[in-house]
Amino acid sequence: MNVVRMNTAHATEEGIRTIVKNVRAVSPHIGIMIDTKGPEVRTTGVKEPI
């Protein structure tokens, strides 16, 4: 594994810190890529009103 990608739209700050800590415990040479787009509303069309 060369890099870990973390999607911050689905994680807490505490969760991100835990992942970074765990990755660093395995190897200091694994890159960490953080998607900082943030939370977003995900919608889809439906046949019947909700």
TrEMBL record:
<dbReference type="GO" id="GO:0030955">
    <property type="term" value="F:potassium ion binding"/>
</dbReference>
<dbReference type="InterPro" id="IPR040442">
    <property type="entry name" value="Pyrv_kinase-like_dom_sf"/>
</dbReference>
<dbReference type="Pfam" id="PF00224">
    <property type="entry name" value="PK"/>
</dbReference>
<dbReference type="GO" id="GO:0004743">
    <property type="term" value="F:pyruvate kinase activity"/>
</dbReference>
<keyword id="KW-0808">Transferase</keyword>
<protein>
    <submittedName>
        <fullName>Pyruvate kinase</fullName>
    </submittedName>
</protein>
<dbReference type="GO" id="GO:0000287">
    <property type="term" value="F:magnesium ion binding"/>
</dbReference>
<dbReference type="InterPro" id="IPR015793">
    <property type="entry name" value="Pyrv_Knase_brl"/>
</dbReference>
<keyword id="KW-0418">Kinase</keyword>
<keyword id="KW-0670">Pyruvate</keyword>
<dbReference type="GO" id="GO:0016301">
    <property type="term" value="F:kinase activity"/>
</dbReference>
<dbReference type="InterPro" id="IPR015813">
    <property type="entry name" value="Pyrv/PenolPyrv_kinase-like_dom"/>
</dbReference>
<feature type="domain" description="Pyruvate kinase barrel">
    <location>
        <begin position="1"/>
        <end position="47"/>
    </location>
</feature>
